[in-house]
Amino acid sequence: APQGVYDTPEHHFQAGVRFLDKEQYREAEREFGSALALDGDYGPAMAGKGALMAVDGVEGQARDLIDEGWDYADGPEQELAVIVMQIRCLTYLGRFGRLDSEELADEAYDAYDDGLDLVEDNPGINDPALHYYMGEAYFQALLLDSAEEMFTRVLTLGKGMETEADLALKK
């Protein structure tokens, strides 16, 4: 049977991200699993499962899945999606006490820096999620000026997530 427009790894991954945003973890897990059922090598969905492991506080498995996501990411868009998931994963590890503020800020910034390099080398893939979730990581690490700078960057970029960034600036 032909694959439907909504039955693609990308679609299921994006649906999983939306559930993750709403803290609907079981639904996110289902969608990331559906993406991997269609393509067992879909890097962003592996990284999504890594973020869910971080929510559960399972640091080793979370990091392993992020690494696998990196290994299997196919092209700059998927690489950027993995980087965003890596930042989210680290933020969850910080939130649930697996990383201290300094470790969180340093590791998340390293991933963010990789994302900036990727965006610089591939014009047109500047995803506001990169800046937004770096802002969330800084906020979790209590680096509030840096968080504000990231959320403001989302607003300046004007490519989505402005509502979320605006709400974050009012925290």
Key phrases:
171 residues, mainly alpha, 0% strand, globular, 9 helices
Question: In summary, what is this structure?
Answer:
The chain has 171 residues and is mostly helical.
What does this entry look like structurally?
With 171 residues, the chain is mostly helical. The chain contains 9 helices and no strands. The chain has helices at 9-21, 25-38, 43-55, 59-72, 76-95, 101-121, 128-140, 144-157, 162-169. Helix 1 packs antiparallel against helix 2, helix 5 (76-95) runs antiparallel to helix 6 (101-121) and helix 6 runs antiparallel to helix 7 (128-140). The longest helix is centred in the middle third of the chain and has 21 residues, at 101-121. The radius of gyration is 15 Å and the shape is globular. The N and C termini lie far apart (48 Å).
Total number of strands: 0
Overall pLDDT score: 94
Radius of gyration, taken over Cα atoms and rounded to an integer in Å = 15 Å
Helix-strand string: HHHHHHHHH
Topology:
Blueprint: H1 9-21, H2 25-38, H3 43-55, H4 59-72, H5 76-95, H6 101-121, H7 128-140, H8 144-157, H9 162-169
Helix pairs in contact: 1-2, 1-3, 2-3, 3-4, 3-5, 4-5, 5-6, 5-7, 6-7, 7-8, 8-9
